[in-house]
């Protein structure tokens, strides 16, 4: 099993936990209320090397592994999920596809600034008319014309896509059609589109239920032209690349979910030891004790699940099923713990000035983003050999 109690992982955990408590916690509520992106916090995260944790030193990263990123995400999310998802999306969806599939020139051009947090990357996959059904719902196209890709289409719900420091978006697009098993299927490729490219328009920020201090927008492409060499990886392999990226990303989202679930325990313990009802603190009541115990069980179980998935990933073993289990279990834990924490806080839990109010608003998207809970169950069943419909 991965050892997070000793060595470099333990040192990383403590440094990020201290940063979350001392830097993020005192100010993030105000950012959240204003729906404002926390540029100063992101800059400090960059200075700590968090955006470069799994990126090799030759590209300006920390030379660590993907589990180091998960450790950081868990500790950040114990305090706030907006900053955690900013890091997660920037690394797992923005930088990692370039590291995994990019040419030497693409890596040398993009990774150094992505690794330091000076620049954020994003990945444009989801479209307004297609969520889980990526191939069937995709309408964005890219055609070659005179050595350039000409991109047309719209992307929805794209994290980190419209900040002042967003530098590049990987755009999944249909680049042709292929015959497979007697059927014509779309050929999907990924193309790197620099920010501020003519024809690339970023919408206003969404008004969201949660993650209010993170950046999420709709993107549109109208005869947007980029050089042919901006193709990321092989032509026609964009969807396969994304599936690999998403398997890793589910482990990261599971870590973030565990952080939120554990943050609910932290806040509930503190509040229950201070809140007096009927002449004594509410932590003396068995109903509250049992609720907090159940919350800790959920967080602990979910942590074991994502650690197991990460261990297999780092060992080079298949981990698709384990990643889906981790994502399903941890997102459920986050949602259940947020609900219970809000109940423990009573009326104060419904106030945005208290962290559990933010936790409750932030938890639901974890059952939707990077693969819905229903999709995770489909993946698990498929990996068990259950025939599809």
UniProtKB/TrEMBL annotation:
Tagged with keyword Oxidoreductase: yes
InterPro entries (alphabetical): Acyl-CoA_DH_CS, Acyl-CoA_Oxase/DH_mid-dom, Acyl-CoA_Oxase/DH_mid-dom_sf, AcylCo_DH-like_C, AcylCo_DH/oxidase_C, AcylCoA_DH/ox_N, AcylCoA_DH/ox_N_sf, AcylCoA_DH/oxidase_NM_dom_sf
Domain Acyl-CoA dehydrogenase/oxidase C-terminal as annotated: residue spans: 236-384
Domain Acyl-CoA oxidase/dehydrogenase middle: residue ranges: 122-224
PROSITE patterns linked: ACYL_COA_DH_1, ACYL_COA_DH_2
Cofactor(s) it depends on: FAD
Keywords: FAD, Flavoprotein, Oxidoreductase
Stretches assigned to the Acyl-CoA dehydrogenase/oxidase N-terminal domain: 8-118
Family: Belongs to the acyl-CoA dehydrogenase family.
PANTHER family for the chain: ACYL-COA DEHYDROGENASE, ISOVALERYL-COA DEHYDROGENASE, MITOCHONDRIAL-RELATED
Protein name in the entry: Acyl-CoA dehydrogenase family protein
Source organism per UniProt: Microtetraspora malaysiensis
Taxonomic lineage: Bacteria, Bacillati, Actinomycetota, Actinomycetes, Streptosporangiales
